[in-house]
Amino acid sequence: MTTRTTTTTTTRRTRIGEFTYPWLLTLGVVLLMTVGSTESAKGSCRAAKRCCDGQDGDCLIQSSIENPYQTSEQDEDIQEPCYCDHGCLDMGDCCPDFKDYCGVIDCQVSEWSTWSKCDVSCGEGTASRTRDVERPESNGGSQCPVLEERKRCHANKCHPKHNQVEKSSAFRETAMILPGKYAVQSMRGGRKYEVRANLKSFLDKPKSKKYCVVFKVEKATHTCQNDKETDPLRTGHTVCAVCDDKAQRDNLGGRCMGHGIEGRPTKFKNLIHPRCHGRWTKVETRDECPCPNGPDFVFV
């Protein structure tokens, strides 16, 4: 073995000048075939120079180059086809360079804008935000996503503290009230689970800001003193009534019915004891009730 190897080496060395350039040329061809077969093995629309419209089963790319240096496992990989038709986007069997070579462009959009102002100045309305199409889809690319979103909003420029109340209407109204403990229960009750909130189209209703009205009792029936819950309704006493979001009415500008007019006596009536009623005068409106024990009553 040693002698054959030596002889062989000597022979190649003595004839290297004769075979150097043809040998290098042959090596280059083999390398090109190997690279080409590797690209074909992966499936290339560019190598096959094919791009087909729609869903075309004949637009199949499969290696036709035989490489003697491939193993049996690699041969199996070569036989795995891919497609260069636009239907491959739906089928999920596109060749790796399909989008690049065949000019498939997905829709590209900008970032969301800031939310717009509420489209009403009083009560419930809608705010929106948008984004723009920077590059539309082409040649079967992904379509553009939603370009506008909306959500509910609440405007309170008609809030009573802004003095935008229709006084003639408020003067005729009667305040329907309950004991203040019901306002405490409503605040502690928490928020119930809303299954529709999982839907993209669901617009959550924001809670309106509650406020408190301070009244001076001008006159009350004797029935009011028969129950400790209505006993504060005595002539000359100051009481607080809270207006929470459940009692606020959009048709009244987001206020409670019967919340009164400053300096003018208006009517009230207790719903638990209907014979407990009378007149009181609105003193002021505050965000929180200033009475020592919190709200004495709650609007209904």
Automatic annotation (TrEMBL):
Keyword flag Oxidoreductase: no
Pfam families: SBSPON_C, Somatomedin_B, TSP1_spondin
Domain SMB: 47-106
Signal sequence residues: 1-40
Assigned keywords, A-Z: Disulfide bond, Glycoprotein, Signal
InterPro entries: SBSPO, SBSPON_C, Somatomedin_B-like_dom_sf, Somatomedin_B_dom, TSP1_rpt, TSP1_rpt_sf, TSP1_spondin_dom
PROSITE patterns named among the record's database cross-references: SMB_1, SMB_2, TSP1
Domain of life: Eukaryota
Protein's UniProt name: SMB domain-containing protein
Organism name: Tigriopus californicus (Marine copepod)
